[in-house]
Write a structure and sequence with these properties.
The chain is an alpha/beta fold. The protein is built from six helices and nine strands, in the order βαβαβαβαβαββαββ. The strands form two sheets. The protein has a seven-stranded mixed beta sheet, covered by helices on one side. A two-stranded antiparallel sheet has the order 8-9. The radius of gyration is 16 Å and the shape is globular.
């Protein structure tokens, strides 16, 4: 199993999905550490309830982004981490960190990328009148939600949807595909090569 850390900033619902799959005994990733940049968030409680080691590193304690990220990197290496999942981590990582962990840094985003990057994705989907939205698991690159796509799930946008109702249905799919995509990376079935996803049969 691949030693894995999860970065969070909030409620940790996607973290819980990763925990549930890990506890099932079918996961290829081994959760070792949960890091939050905000103290007291519900995601930390979920991690502690699962018996996971947690650490709070506030970005406000550092002079710049890269200084914060270098401490993150040191923390990961001290714990023997080989794979990192971003589960509602509301910080843009520095180019240095992204390059250092290229191919080992996975994020989930609540849209069918490359459409609707950034925040307020569900309202954007409704405002543009798209018939389908969804979620994407990607390898993190130096852009904003612009990394190579590992997995996606499609969710129809209903005529009476609000941002909240659409978000709730997409969240169900996030919880389904995130653990499976992380598994594929942990097993080496999906890898990043020259900025593109390569799928292998093992």
């Amino acid at each position: 199993m691949t030693p894995t850390a999860v970065f969070i900033s909030g409620t940790g619902t996607n973290l819980q999905a990763l925990i549930d799959h890990w506890r099932s005994g079918n996961a290829a990733y081994d959760l070792k550490l949960v890091v939050s940049n905000i103290a007291g968030v519900a995601g930390l409680q979920k991690a502690q309830a699962a018996g996971l080691k947690t650490q709070v590193l506030s970005h406000k304690d550092f002079a710049d982004k890269e200084s914060f990220d270098r401490v993150l990197d040191q923390t990961l290496r001290e714990q023997g981490i080989e794979l990192v999942a971003l589960a509602g981590f509301m910080r843009l990582l520095s180019p240095w960190f992204v390059r250092t962990w290229a191919g080992k840094l996975v994020n989930i985003h609540p849209s069918l990328l490359p459409a609707f990057t950034g925040l307020q994705t569900h309202q954007k989907a409704i405002d543009y009148g798209v018939r389908y939205s969804g979620c994407s698991v990607i390898f993190v690159d130096e852009g904003v939600d612009s990394g190579a796509i590992i997995e996606q799930a499609v969710v129809p946008v209903l005529p009476d949807d609000t941002a909240q109702t659409l978000a709730a249905r997409i969240l169900v799919e996030e919880h389904r595909i995130f653990p499976l995509a992380l598994d594929e990376v942990a097993r080496g079935r999906v890898a990043l090569l020259a900025g593109r996803v390569v799928r292998k049969t093992i």
